[in-house]
Amino acid sequence: DGSFASTSQDSRSRVRRNDGPQSRHQKALDRCLDALNFIPSISSGSRGIGSKETDTFEARISILIPVLTSCYTRHGGSAFLSITGLTDLLRHDFYADDIEMSQDPSSRTTLLDISIQVACDVSTMGAQEAQLYACVEFVEEALKFGCGYLSTRTVGYVLRFFLFVFHFGISSPSGNWGITSASDQYILEDIRSTTNKWALPGGASQSA
């Protein structure tokens, strides 16, 4: 029957059109995005809701992305300038919105967390001596600024980072590399707790 043949041909044509290169590309892209679900979402520490806060948060992300990206530049002085730029942003309260005393920091990841993780990651990947000093300076000030309100993943980055710094200081050719500090601070100190001060939420005690 001619009408049945015409209908079948139209159906096959629609299937071919729907399964074109653009459709297959979209399906492949969706599968890739689903595979990235393990990446934690970035959030602001404050709990306020509104268009103004959303715009501010997106503007902060737009400012920070190129800075964090250039931290991984291996040639020239871009990485050093980027790390010192993070320190300048920290001193100008760029990360103030990421500090929220009433929320559990272990359940969220903020821009301050991401910045600390990048600084630690860049250093352990093979930083030069001058660049490493800038990373230590930023991480040290960021820990004080965050008052312990960091994700547990960030705390892990910091612990590995300082272990690397200690070994680097021992093997430094200059022999006099180091950081002078007014007082030592416990990395795992939880200033919010009065009974269990030496443990972070979800973590073991420091003595362990």
From TrEMBL:
Q: Name the segments for region: Disordered.
A: 1-26
Q: Where is the composition biased (Polar residues)?
A: 1-10
Where does the source fall among the domains of life?
A: Eukaryota
This chain belongs to the protein called Uncharacterized protein
- The species this protein belongs to is Pseudo-nitzschia australis
| Record lineage | Eukaryota, Sar, Stramenopiles, Ochrophyta, Bacillariophyta
